[in-house]
Design goal:
Length: 138
């Protein structure tokens, strides 16, 4: 194969796109958070996110979210191809505003949980989970 100027430019462009990709995933999470909160300020008191510090397998990472009094909780995995992982809605007859599930993580990344409270405020918890074996095709 003869290396031409066109091939060199295409490789440079491909490298630039690959270098920017992780930033787009993080920006997508921030955009999703802004869409859920409507751009409102997000506090940090009143929500608990329990996730392992180290997950041996990214296919099944257990998490638990607890936000007493919350109307809705949304969970994001910042490094996944599709960051929105789960949404939990609670009615007025809900016994507790907590949820537990297993999620799939593509690699080491932050897991973010945001709760909408009845007064219209939002609270957030964030935890980094280190994955030793990838889950989303990793």
């Amino acid at each position: 194969m003869k290396l031409t100027r066109r091939h060199t430019l295409m490789m440079a462009f491909g490298s630039a796109v690959a270098a920017v990709m992780p930033f787009r995933a993080f920006a997508a999470v921030e955009d999703n958070i802004a869409a859920f909160t409507g751009g409102a300020a997000v506090g940090s008191e009143g929500i608990t996110l329990i996730a392992p510090e180290i997950a041996e397998n990214g296919n099944t990472v257990p998490i638990e979210v607890n936000a007493p009094g919350a109307e809705a909780i949304i969970v994001f995995a910042a490094g996944n191809p599709t960051p929105s992982v789960a949404t939990f809605n609670f009615g007025p007859m809900a016994a507790s505003q907590s949820a537990a599930t297993r999620i799939r993580l593509a690699g080491t990344q932050d897991v973010v949980a945001i709760a909408r409270m009845p007064d219209g405020s939002f609270v957030q918890a964030r935890q980094e989970v280190k994955v030793t074996i990838g889950g989303c095709g990793g």
